[in-house]
Specification:
Elements: H1 2-16, H2 29-39, H3 43-56, H4 71-85, H5 89-114, H6 118-126, H7 130-168, H8 172-184, H9 186-197, H10 203-214, H11 220-235, H12 271-281, H13 295-309, H14 313-323, H15 334-350, H16 357-394, H17 400-437, H18 440-463, E1 471-472, E2 479-480, H19 481-488, H20 492-506, H21 511-527
Antiparallel strand pairs: 1-2
Length: 532
């Protein structure tokens, strides 16, 4: 079993390496579950358990400085123990939740500890030692996968026998309770996603998505397609009247002064250098810490430009110190800021009168607004669609689910992230000004909310299987409560539970307490035969 445990540990370490891989969702249970199943000889079970855990932790995302439960460690260990004990998704859930919460504490402690390295980063900057900055960024980033890998291997080596013996003692009624609780937990993920997007202006689209799924039984991918069409229609501008193109006969073109625009600065950085910015941006969060957040990741990404532009210790020192200031934005839009910064650094190197402070001002001014736009676009739209399509297939054991999940999310992610590097460098702040004039950012945010909410609205009706076995009347003429509810609003219980959790999320109840509350509700509801 030693080789098996080593392979399972490597899967978890691979998941924790996502901080070096650009937040490409390779760490999600929907991806790691099948890999665990492959190692243990049951890919189908791994796919199904991964889909179950993905639904439960769908809203488990890292935005800003919020550190969610560690679904990598919990997901790998929970899936592994469930498959080895032949107990299925319910047991994976029972193990994954507490393990994820405990692992979160370890990772949060690591993020606090990493701030100790900031003094060393500043020393490297003072010395103009860019190699030291990038080396320490990588080494600090390796701490998390290394530490969690050790913990996971020890847990497998020491705990597998004890866990399997314990699981064998669990009675059937407990497993049934866990299964019902597992069906309820996706409500937390849906509520957390709603918290990102839901407001009075776009709320109708949530209910439209729900009705399309509950009444018309449309699959999520079809609802997503309709969402795209509706978002394009709603956000397009009304046609503007065009002025007559016929010239005025009394107008003398020969006397018209010709307006000239100042020449654009000539960019000199090669495409190869800009590609390095894109590739290095994937490690933006490798050394994330609670003091300066993504600052060393930004410095790591911009170093190829600094090497090209600055050839004295003094100039390199000043540049490194600029980019080791606090920085935090959505990784998905980070390359736009990195590209703009590269262009400004180039101007600074060529123009002695250039205001160096403007570089930091632009970075700080852009990181907040872009974080809001790109977090909403990717967490609230692309991830929702990808997870909806992927889990709807994977929950049935279809391996296409995880593959479509990665493709739907990462094709637009990587294409946009790559091109934003060049857009930022070539167009700079003028690009953002043009977007602002055309209200493009507002349209993008609004369209993303429409599309995301339609898909989220479809999920309770499609992916939550919660019913009640209660009957009204005597045994001979009993009428099922579930049948009555279905005639009024199909999937009423999943919808009501989602809004109940959303209410508590808005009241800022901690995610951990909501998670435990749903577990208790599902377990107790199963015991008293309120839910099945």
């Amino acid at each position: 079993m030693l080789a098996t445990y080593l392979l399972l540990t490597l899967i978890a370490v691979f998941g924790h390496f996502e901080d070096f891989l650009g937040t490409t969702l390779l760490s999600r249970p929907l991806i790691l579950g099948p890999l665990v199943g492959l190692v243990l000889g049951d890919v189908t079970q791994g796919v199904m358990i991964g889909a179950t855990l993905e639904l439960i932790f769908m809203g488990n995302i890292k935005v800003g400085a919020a550190i969610p439960p560690d679904i990598i460690t919990g997901g790998v260990l929970g899936t592994a123990f469930a498959i080895m004990s032949h107990k299925g998704p319910a047991i994976a859930l029972a193990l994954a939740v507490p393990i994820s919460i405990l692992s979160e504490m370890v990772i949060s402690g690591l993020f606090v500890f990493r701030a100790v390295f900031n003094k060393k980063f500043n020393q490297y900057a003072e010395a103009g030692d860019y190699k030291g900055v990038q080396r320490l960024h990588i080494l600090s980033g390796l701490l998390k996968p290394a530490l969690m890998g050790i913990i996971i291997f020890v847990a497998l080596e020491l705990g597998s026998t004890a866990i399997k013996s314990f699981l064998d003692l669990i009675p059937v009624w407990v497993q049934s309770g866990l299964q019902v609780a597992g069906n309820m937990l996706p409500a937390l993920g849906f509520a957390l996603l709603m918290n990102l997007m839901f407001n009075k202006r776009v709320a109708p689209y949530f209910f439209l998505g729900f009705m399309l799924a509950a009444y018309l039984k449309l699959p999520i991918i079809a609802i997503g397609g309709l969402g795209v069409i509706i978002a394009l229609i709603v956000t397009q501008d009304a046609p503007k009247p065009t002025a007559s193109s016929a010239p005025d006969d009394d107008f003398d073109f020969d006397d018209t002064p010709v307006e000239t625009t100042p020449a654009e600065p000539q960019h000199q950085l090669s495409k190869g250098t800009l590609r390095k910015l894109f590739l290095r941006s994937l490690a933006l969060e490798a050394n994330f810490n609670f003091e300066t957040w993504q600052n060393t990741g930004f410095a790591f990404a911009i170093i190829p430009v600094l090497k090209k532009l600055y050839h004295t210790k003094e100039a390199m020192t000043a540049a490194l110190k600029r980019h080791l200031q606090l920085f935090n934005t959505s990784p998905y839009g980070s390359t736009l800021i990195i590209g703009i910064t590269a262009a400004m650094e180039e101007q600074n190197a060529l123009d002695k009168d250039f205001d160096e402070e403007s570089i930091s001002s632009v970075k700080l001014g852009l990181m907040g607004p872009l974080a809001g736009v790109f977090d909403s676009l990717f967490w609230g739209t692309f991830k929702v669609i990808a997870a909806g399509v992927g889990t709807s297939l994977a929950i049935k054991g279809n391996i296409l689910g995880p593959l479509l999940f990665l493709i739907i999310f990462n094709v637009p992610h990587l294409l946009l992230r790559y091109n934003l590097t060049f857009i930022g460098y070539n167009a700079g702040t003028k690009f953002l000004q043009n977007l602002s004039k055309g209200n493009v950012m507002d349209k993008l945010t609004s369209g993303a909310a429409i599309l995301g909410l339609m898909v989220v609205g479809a999920m309770p009706a499609t992916l939550m299987n919660i019913k009640t076995p209660l009957n009204i009347g005597s045994s001979s003429s009993a009428v099922g409560v579930q049948g009555i509810l279905d005639q009024i609003v199909p999937a009423m219980i999943p919808l009501g539970l989602t809004f109940l959790v959303y209410y508590f999320v808005k009241k800022q109840v901690k995610t951990t307490w909501l998670l435990l509350g749903l577990l208790v509700l599902g377990f107790a509801g199963s015991i008293i035969h309120l839910f099945v």
